[in-house]
Known about the structure:
Layout: E1 2-5, H1 7-24, E2 29-36, H2 40-47, E3 53-63, E4 74-78, E5 88-96, H3 100-110, E6 116-124, E7 137-141, E8 147-148, E9 164-166
Parallel strand pairs: 2-3, 2-5, 5-6, 6-7
Antiparallel strand pairs: 1-9, 3-4, 8-9
Helix pairs in contact: 1-2
Amino acid sequence: MKKLLTKEExxxxxAGIGRKIxxxxxxxxVVLIGVLKGACMFLSDLARQIExxxxxxxxxxxxxxxxxxxxxxxxxxxxxxxxxxxxxxxxVEDILDxxxxxxxxxxxxxxxxxxxxxxxxxxxxxxxxxxxxxxxxVGFRIADExxxxxxxxxxxxxxxxPDICVLEEAHEE
Length: 173
Ligand code: IMP
Ligand code: MG
């Protein structure tokens, strides 16, 4: 598989996002909410680059559609377990693609009435956007290619690759 982003490039981008969050919320605490399962690597590395009081929580969604596409419908399958009211919430996502997942999650998170709400995404594919959602912190803007590794999967595989790779055409359906 062709490497798109090496683990060194990823580490550098994650450190940069960590510095920005540390500066933006100086003197405050943050709640990092990872979107399972894809964001687990990003969240664990990002958390260690944030020099603030930080807590974690996780949320899980299911989207319907083709294997490589987000369907129009997004369903919450696991909510956060901690109260978010008046907290500085940072939603941590692996990739922002059509935006349908984050549009749904943004609305859901806002119903918890946080003090601040920000989105951190490691990857952004702006050319694929259907819903008008933008992230506050972006690691890399990438072209419209299907990528795996560093938490990102294809049919649950490849999440454990340390680099981010482009999935070969042979896997296309
Ligand atoms: P969105 O709702 O289309 O923005 O989809 C976001 C979700 O689709 C991500 O959380 C991923 O689970 C999945 N996804 C989108 N593009 C890719 C990709 O290139 N590789 C792996 N998963 C992807
Ligand atoms: Mg995901």
